[in-house]
Amino acid sequence: MFTNFAIKLAIFCLQRAKPTLEQRNQLANEVLSTLAALPLSSIITVKDGSLFVKGNPLGPSEASSLRESARAAMASKAFTLIRDEVLYQAYTFAANKSVNIDQLLFAKAAVWWGQKENDYLLLLSTLGTEDPDPIG
After folding, report:
1. 92: domain range?
2. Which of 52, 81, 76 has its CA nearest to residue 66?
3. How far is it, in rounded angstroms, from Cα 109 to Cα 107?
4. What total number of domains does the chain contain?
5. For residue 128, is it within any domain?
6. What's the predicted TM-score (pTM) here?
7. Residues 134, 126: contact at Cβ < 8 Å?
8. φ, ψ for residue 63 (rounded to 5)?
9. pLDDT band at 21 (very low <50, low <70, confident <90, very high)
């Protein structure tokens, strides 16, 4: 019963309030975190030279499996061609077709995605080597 009241009160207040962008972001983060709707914390982390996935350290067999999988992805001709084509498409979209800031940001996000994908493949492919955090 209290939950229903709280939700109705929150909706009532939101409909009448004029929150700032910072307040809206704070509210959205709190709601999404409380509902566990999005992973608002990093999934892959490196602490003291060890890799953690969702807060849990990887065992030797899991690390080996991830390392080999990442190396296979990096060696894949199809994956490399697709990644390079998406990067090319993002740059050409930004340069030739974007007409507003949203489209430019979208293209920039596509480039960022590709860079992060590369960074994490490199990180995973070096598990157990002398450089445990090549992107950090």
Report:
1. 58-136
2. 52
3. 5
4. 2
5. yes
6. 0.61
7. yes
8. -60, -45
9. confident
